[in-house]
């Protein structure tokens, strides 16, 4: 990206990643990383009609595990990469009102 201020324009040129497919979180689940080490994840938003909503996730719940890994052992980017796998059924464990629940997110392409 080049900003050409004298001519009031922006020039965009493809980089080496241009031919790669754009991947996005396909779950509809937005997470907040909290705690001193940012390895405590809370559902900040659950999009309407998303795999997260269909799977039973609710705003404010704490993510305990994702795809067999403890959430505290992952960072937000790693969790996001797991949730980019359209077509996969991703098991998650959440904490809701002091109870632990196991859910499945059936990810689908949303774009």
Query: What would the principal axes of the Cα set say about the shape?
Result: elongated
**Oligomeric description of these chains:** single chain
CATH class: Mainly Beta
Biggest sheet overview:
6 strands, antiparallel
What is the CATH superfamily?
Answer: PDZ domain
Q: Which percent range fits the helix content? A: 10-25%
Distance, first to last CA = 25 Å
Which structural class should the secondary elements be placed in? mainly beta
CATH topology: Pdz3 Domain
Rg (CA only): 17 Å
Count all strands and give the number.
8
Question: So how many helices?
Answer: 2
- Percent of residues in beta strands: 35-45%
Query: Spans of 5+ residues with little confidence (pLDDT < 50)?
Result: none
Can you tell me the number of structural domains? 1
On the 0 to 100 scale, the average pLDDT is 93
What is the element string, with H for helices and E for strands?
A: EEEEHEEHEE
Describe the SSE topology.
Blueprint: E1 2-4, E2 9-11, E3 29-34, E4 40-46, H1 51-55, E5 62-66, E6 69-70, H2 76-82, E7 89-96, E8 99-106
Antiparallel strand pairs: 1-2, 3-4, 4-5, 5-6, 5-7, 7-8
């Amino acid at each position: 990206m080049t900003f050409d201020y004298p001519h009031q324009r922006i020039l965009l040129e493809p980089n080496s990643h241009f031919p790669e497919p754009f991947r996005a979180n396909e779950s509809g689940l937005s997470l907040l990383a909290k705690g001193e080490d940012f390895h405590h994840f809370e559902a900040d938003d659950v999009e309407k009609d998303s795999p997260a909503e269909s799977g039973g996730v609710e705003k404010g719940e704490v993510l305990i595990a994702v795809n067999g890994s403890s959430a505290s052992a992952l960072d937000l980017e790693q969790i996001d990469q797991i949730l980019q796998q359209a077509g996969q059924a991703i098991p998650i464990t959440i904490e809701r009102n002091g109870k632990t629940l196991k859910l499945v997110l059936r990810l689908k392409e949303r774009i």
